[in-house]
Design goal:
With about 375 residues, the protein is α/β, with parallel strands linked by helices. It has two domains: about 10-250, Type I PLP-dependent aspartate aminotransferase-like (Major domain) (Aspartate Aminotransferase, domain 2); about 255-380, Aspartate Aminotransferase, domain 1 (Alpha-Beta Complex), CATH 3.90.1150.10. The protein contains 15 helices and 13 strands.
């Protein structure tokens, strides 16, 4: 599995998922929930409680929007891919006025162009919704710097960090985010089914002071239950139990080492792509996945199909307007250097068989990148 989610499960996580579930209204489960909440707070680098929502990352996105925004409010969205589009779609579903700053898929937002947008079309917006690592394009946006310029202009920032948490540094408190959301099936090395939400003090003030209609996604209700180490509704008990193990694995390795490993694997994939004579799709790549532009007149789905049928490897194609025009290699979560070597070898064989590239060079280029740990680690601090 080399898709941008779901990602492979560590053996110890898989083993916990096979155990009998606990009853969720017991002291034993409450103790686990307390420990996972504390662990998530360390990973998000925040003193605020992190809500665990039984639902997908999209449920977490919707929870943030309905708790932060108020009826009739104008909100701003940065849209350069499928998940920027999703913020827009959720906001419109609740009748909000949306002002949108759009860029071509594969391009990256910068603090400068967002500042100009907020001073013009976005000046009436109270909240800016954005994606840190855009999974559809493999692009990393400048979340820390964008949050800074937005706050200078009196805007709250809510960020989707679904494919950046556990891959790139995410420093919720220091960066001054109002809210952030994640899902379980990416860098946290779990199956799909849990969403995570953290909000700042200002975010909680807005949630308690009103907001859009909500019931299941009422974060105030969730926080009141979390104060008792409980949940307002039945949680996905097996996933919460496995979450404790995934947090342990991340912290045993050390977050800085986790980020360096992802940078090393991303560098190896990019080096291999260059050696094969293909181009990256993103102008500012994320370390969670590598999006590769398909040569003119070719169909990226051919690569996806051949890797699956001939090598037993699943990668992802392009989404919506990029279908057939790119393919994506996922390398976030539980991967070793040998996994990346296997992926590069299979990719080279596949592209040579398709006539898209000449043999030789990709494996050596990836190997040199894997050996350049110190250089790659320095890239992992990019925000």
């Amino acid at each position: 599995m080399f898709t941008p989610g779901p990602t492979p499960l560590p053996d110890s996580v898989r083993e916990i998922l096979e155990r009998p579930a606990l009853h969720h209204r017991t002291a034993e489960f409450q103790t686990v929930l307390a420990r996972t909440t504390a662990g998530l707070m360390r990973i998000f680098q925040t003193r605020q409680p992190v809500m665990t929502v039984t639902g997908s990352g999209t449920a977490a996105m919707e929870a943030v929007l309905v708790n932060l925004a108020r009826p009739g409010e104008t909100v701003a969205v940065l849209n350069a891919g499928k998940f920027g589009e999703r913020w827009h779609a959720i906001a419109r579903a609740y009748g909000l006025k949306v002002v949108e700053h759009t860029k071509a898929w594969g391009t990256a937002f910068t603090a400068g162009d967002v500042a100009a947008f907020l001073e013009e079309d976005g000046r009436e917006a109270s909240i800016l919704f954005m994606t840190h690592s855009e999974t559809s394009t493999g692009t990393l946006h400048e979340l820390e710097r964008i949050t800074g310029v937005a706050r200078e202009r009196g805007k709250l920032v809510a960020a989707d960090v679904v494919t950046s948490l556990g891959v790139h540094p995410v420093e919720f408190d220091r960066w001054g985010l109002a809210a952030a959301v994640c899902g379980s099936q990416k860098g946290l090395m779990l199956p799909p089914g849990l969403g995570f939400v953290v909000m700042s003090g200002v975010g909680w003030e807005r949630a308690q002071g009103g907001g859009l209609p909500r019931f299941y996604l009422d974060l105030v209700r969730m926080r009141n239950s979390l104060n008792k180490n409980s949940t307002p509704f039945t949680p996905s008990v097996p996933l919460v139990l496995a979450l404790e193990e995934s947090i342990r694995l991340l912290e045993d390795e050390g977050l800085s080492a986790v980020h360096a490993r992802h940078a090393r694997h991303a560098a190896a994939c990019r080096a291999a792509v260059g050696a094969l004579g293909l181009d990256l799709f993103s102008e500012r790549p994320s370390n969670g996945l590598t999006a590769i532009r398909v040569p003119e007149g070719k169909d990226g789905q051919e690569v996806v199909t051949r890797l699956r049928e001939e090598h037993g490897m699943r990668v992802a194609g392009g989404q919506e307007p990029m279908k057939g025009r790119l393919f994506r290699l996922g390398h976030m979560g539980h991967y070793r250097d040998d996994d990346i070597r296997d992926l590069v070898a299979a990719l080279e064989t596949t592209l040579v068989d398709l006539g898209w590239a000449r043999a030789g060079g990709a494996r050596d280029a990836a190997e040199r990148a894997l050996a350049g740990e110190a250089e790659s680690a320095s890239q992992s601090t990019t925000t």
